[in-house]
Amino acid sequence: MISAILVFNNHGKPRLVRFYQRLAEEVQQQIIRETFHLVLKRDDHICNFLECGSLFGGPDYKLIYRHYATLYFVFCVDSSESELGILDLIQVFVETLDKCFENVCELDLIFHMDKVHYILQEVVIGGMVLETNMNEIVAQAEAQSKLEKTEGGLSAAPSRAVSAVKNINLPEIPRNINIGDINIKVPNLSQFV
Fold this sequence. Notes:
Blueprint (H helix, E strand, L loop, with lengths): L1 E8 L4 E6 L5 H16 L8 E3 L1 H4 L5 E7 L2 E7 L5 H19 L4 H6 L1 H11 E2 L2 E2 L4 H17 L6 H10 L9 E4 L2 E4 L8
Antiparallel strand pairs: 1-2, 1-5, 3-4, 4-5, 6-7, 8-9
Helix pairs in contact: 3-5, 3-6, 5-6
């Protein structure tokens, strides 16, 4: 099972963080720092797998990572996952991001965080690999983008909600509400419409 997915730049700034087990915020920050220092001090010609038992509290956890340009993609997995399978999954994730953003870069991860998280959820959900077919992932991401455009996107949501409330046809609002011994007088709100 995948315990965490971390993407950070060459300076250790996290650009994507997803933990699939509940950990305190301080512990997560410590894991991110230690993972970055472990991965950074390794040479590019060394194997992309390393043991990280002390980070996640068990001897059977491994870090599997790839370094692309200015970004490190790091997956922390338990012993039930195949190292080569996870390396391939990282490759699929990066190539999918590349297709969706046309030459993905660090700024895409910063400014399109919602889309990056959506793509990640198409690949991995709950620590389990869901989809590895790049074309299917890209098709789902494009369908989501189309849906957001037809609905006006997230930025238009508040104005749509206000207009929906204004257009509700309510019958005459009662002026007095009696609940047992409690009598509530409702003010006239027509002046605010």
